[in-house]
From TrEMBL:
The keyword Transmembrane applies. Belongs to the glycosyl hydrolase 12 (cellulase H) family. SUPFAM superfamilies: Concanavalin A-like lectins/glucanases. The chain crosses the membrane at residues 6-29. The keyword NADP does not apply. Residues 39-65 are annotated as: Disordered. It comes from Sporothrix stenoceras. This is Xyloglucan-specific endoglucanase. Pfam families: Glyco_hydro_12.
Length: 329
């Protein structure tokens, strides 16, 4: 537990910036944030013995893969790696245990800390169930993998690419689904999205603070259920952009924290994507809108995950393949 305490401290700065202001939620947010440092409600049990000294995975000498399950409310884990560092956050920021339901996150780490590429993230999945929340605060969690290791903050103009190569599935039940069956998700009233979440600001520190940053830019690869709607959907799309065959439409609005929220929504469920996301930010500069970011602004936060609203049964979001390759020009 001593070592866990250390990882808790290391990750605390990340935890106090949970996501979830996307649907305009001020109510209770301070309470949620101060709750972000809660002790684990469940002591992680390795599903196979962890080699090396790091309970977050990696740091060992053999060539095995280790899957470990984490059911804590919020604190993230940062596996040892010889490449790009990632932190996996359960981030149940809008959930109170008294509501029932919950979430567990499985993370598969390489004992030798050497992933297939320098930018490959650990494979991970979440299994969750939450009851329907109030309209004022429908999101229970944003479990995600965060690009860590000092890549951000960086000004947008200093970036050459934000390469994202991802494959995911969403399915009913406690096992990873091989494909996403949208009809089954509808039957189980699953309300969730699959999204990249980014924050930008002209100030480099504020850019890393999800409640303070002036701009939130999201990229939604899927939205399931009526509750999962981008802010500004009713106003219609501002513009569209095609990235490697996927068409994204831009929606704009502000949330209750008065942040400008820009959401690029894929025209259909996109469970495999390989491309550079940077054009979805630079396109904003060309739209001559004073409420949109500019190229000298800092990108301070980049995470990929699923906003979990509610579901009548356990569902599993699985990310077997993920690489995020950010390079500067
Ligand atoms: C690390 O382990 C993986 C998985 O077994 C293996 O493919 C890879 O070759 C190993 N890398 C090194 C440097 O030992
Ligand atoms: C399904 O997973 C959840 C969360 O991980 C757990 O609470 C529940 O007991 C599991 N159900 C079964 C049938 O394994
Ligand atoms: C997560 O890990 C637990 C414990 O090893 C296992 O029972 C469960 O099936 C795993 N879930 C998924 C979705 O693979
Ligand atoms: C983020 O900004 C909020 C609002 O200004 C502030 O209360 C909070 O302390 C900041 N968080 C961090 C980690 O600096
Ligand atoms: C487009 O997607 C294909 C299929 O995943 C991939 O091989 C190719 O590299 C991608 N192209 C770009 C420009 O990212």
């Amino acid at each position: 537990m001593a070592v866990l305490g250390v990882s808790f401290l290391v990750n605390f700065a990340l935890l106090v910036i949970p996501i979830g202001v996307t649907l305009g939620i001020l109510f209770g947010i301070d309470a949620q944030r101060s709750a972000a440092g809660d002790a684990p409600i469940y002591t992680p049990q390795p599903s196979s013995p962890v080699s090396g000294g790091n309970p977050d995975g990696g740091g060992g000498t053999d060539n095995k893969l280790t899957t470990q399950m984490y059911c804590q409310k919020s604190y993230g884990i940062t596996p040892d790696t010889k490449g790009q560092e990632f932190t996996l956050n359960p981030n149940q920021w809008g959930w109170d245990a008294s509501e029932g339901g919950g979430l567990c996150m499985n993370v598969t780490t390489y004992d030798n800390s050497t992933y297939p590429t320098k930018t490959t993230a650990p494979a991970w999945s979440i299994t969750w169930e939450y009851p329907q929340g109030p309209e004022s605060q429908p999101v229970h969690a944003f479990p995600n993998v965060l690009v860590d290791g000092g890549v951000f903050p960086a000004t947008v103009e200093s970036l050459a690419q934000i390469g994202l190569d991802v494959e995911w599935t969403y399915g009913v039940g406690n096992k990873s689904a091989s494909t996403t069956d949208e009809t089954a998700l509808t039957t189980d009233t699953v309300n969730a999205n699959v999204a990249v979440d980014m924050f930008l600001d002209k100030d480099s520190t504020s850019a890393g603070n999800s409640s303070k940053a002036l701009y939130e830019v999201m990229v939604w690869f899927a939205d399931f259920g009526a509750a999962a709607q981008p802010i500004g959907l009713a106003d219609g799309a501002v513009t569209t952009e095609v990235l490697n065959g996927t068409t994204f439409s831009l929606y704009y609005g502000t949330n209750s924290l008065k942040q400008n929220v820009l959401t690029w929504l894929a025209s259909e469920t996109t469970d495999k994507f390989n491309g550079d996301l940077l054009p979805l930010i630079t396109k904003l500069f060309t739209l001559n809108n004073a409420n949109f970011p500019s190229k000298t602004d800092y990108l301070g936060y980049f995470a990929f995950g699923s906003e979990a609203y509610y579901s009548s049964d356990f569902v599993t979001f699985s990310v077997p393949k993920l690489s995020i390759d950010v390079t500067t020009s």
